[in-house]
Structures are given as structure tokens and as C-alpha cells.
Amino acid sequence: MAIDRDLCIGAGQCALTAPGVFTQDDDGFSELLPGREDGAGDPMVREAARSCPVGAITVPQSAS
Questions:
Q1: What is the pTM of this model?
Q2: What share of the chain is helix, strand, coil (3-state, %, to 5)?
Q3: Alpha carbon distance 41, 59 (integer Å)
Q4: CA separation for the pair 14, 46 (Å, rounded)
Q5: Per-position b or e across 7-38, b if 16+ CB within 10 A of its CB
Q6: How many CA atoms lie within 13 A of 3 on its CB side?
């Protein structure tokens, strides 16, 4: 899973949708929580990616 930091606008929808995987840094931009780069089996990871208003999150097929 990856977050395109050039696209991210800090809307925070991913952190609201899947807080066990995503957070926001000190500048308000999204980042993956340490150790959660694979989605940690969270069923909301794909929904979090879909909720991103700028499409900054990519989730590989094998991730939850």
C-alpha cells in the first residue's frame, strides 16, 4: 500500500475510515502507521482508499 505524498491534500478521510492503518503527520498529511504498511488485515483499507478525494492511496490486490 502507498500514499502519494505529492497528491495528498490532508483531507484525513483515510484516517477517519481506517484509523488502525492511517494517521496524519504534524503537517496534516496522511501516512501509514508503523507496521501497518500491508493494511494489517483491516477490512476498511479499501474503503479508506476510495474515500480519498484526490486518489492518493493505492492498495494492491493482495491487501485487505
A1: 0.88
A2: 20, 15, 65
A3: 12
A4: 9
A5: ebeebbbbbebbeebbbbeeeebbbbeeebee
A6: 28
Measured CA angle at 26 (ends 41, 52), to 5 deg? 50
Give, for all 64 residues of the chain, the pLDDT tens digit: 999 999 999 999 999 999 999 999 999 999 999 999 888 789 999 999 999 999 999 998 865 4
* Structural contact between residues 17 and 41, judged by C-beta atoms closer than 8 angstroms: no
- DSSP-H helix ranges across 1-64: 13-17, 45-51
**Cα–Cα dist 44/20, whole Å:** 9
